[in-house]
Automatic annotation (TrEMBL):
One of its GO terms (molecular function) is protein dimerization activity. Gene3D superfamilies: Helix-loop-helix DNA-binding domain (4.10.280.10). SUPFAM superfamilies: BAS1536-like. This is Spo0E like sporulation regulatory protein. It comes from Sporolituus thermophilus DSM 23256. InterPro entries: HLH_DNA-bd_sf, Spo0E-like, Spo0E-like_sf.
Length: 59
């Protein structure tokens, strides 16, 4: 599996987990668990964007 595909799957998994977690915290976006998972998702999105940019730069 290509790195970009792996990252896309991880992003989707984290997004779903974050939605479930926010629901379980009654929408509290300031909950430490929500903030930690959101930060992890942010890092994966940045990695995805870097891989896409690197691929585009090679063309």
């Amino acid at each position: 599996m290509a790195e970009i595909d792996r990252l896309a799957e991880k992003i989707e998994e984290l997004r779903q987990r974050l939605c479930i977690l926010v629901d379980s915290k009654q929408g509290n976006l300031n909950d430490p668990e929500v903030m930690a998972l959101s930060a992890e998702l942010d890092c994966q999105i940045v990695s995805y964007q870097r891989v896409r940019r690197a691929a585009a730069d090679q063309k």
